[in-house]
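Convert to structure. Protein one:
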Amino acid sequence: QVQLVESGGGLVQAGGSLRLSCAGSGRAFSGYAINWFRQAPGKEREFVAGNNWSGTYYADFVKGRFTITRDNAKNTVYLQMNSLNLEDTAVYYCAASSLTTTAEDGMDYWGKGTLVTVSS
């Protein structure tokens, strides 16, 4: 079983930056694709960014602002978020998948999330 723990969330002003981390347990972590999702209160969860065996993918609303990177030696995936705006406020989740998909149904494991709040 893979355990995922997100960290790095917090309060940030609009236009600022924040770096989220997704730490996974076990040697098998490197065998999974990691994706980031987010969910604002009252809204559906949506895909943000992900690395899988076919490439790196970003949602349109974060292209040019967010960057996903991976350090397999540390069993950690990062989400660098720049130029944050109010609409980026959400709980951010990382999820692991053994498939080349960014769909929620394709995720095998989920973290509990970390809250990002963007203020004016």
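Protein two, convert as well:
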Amino acid sequence: QVQLVESGGGLVQAGGSLRLSCVASGRFLRGMYMGWYRQAPGKQRELVATVSNIGRTNYADSVKGRFTISRDNAKNTVWLQMNSLKPEDTAVYYCNAQYGVWEYWGLGTQVTVSS
């Protein structure tokens, strides 16, 4: 089994920065397709950013240019660097891992951006 644990969420003022971390256990990240998703109350979960097993990245238009996803397979860790945060970024952020037909989710970490 694979377990994902997110950390780094918190309260920040608009324009500030946060870095989220996702640490995997049970399997090395090598070969996994990793992503960050977010969900605000009453809204659907949406894709924020992904990074493939070979390092290719993809971002939602709403965060492009402000967020950066990265990974270090040796540390079994994926990060989401969030800069120039806006109140509309407020949500629970979830780490996601895909490996073949298998998919895993973390429990989420709260990010709150005040105006």
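The mean pLDDT is 94. The radius of gyration is 13 Å.
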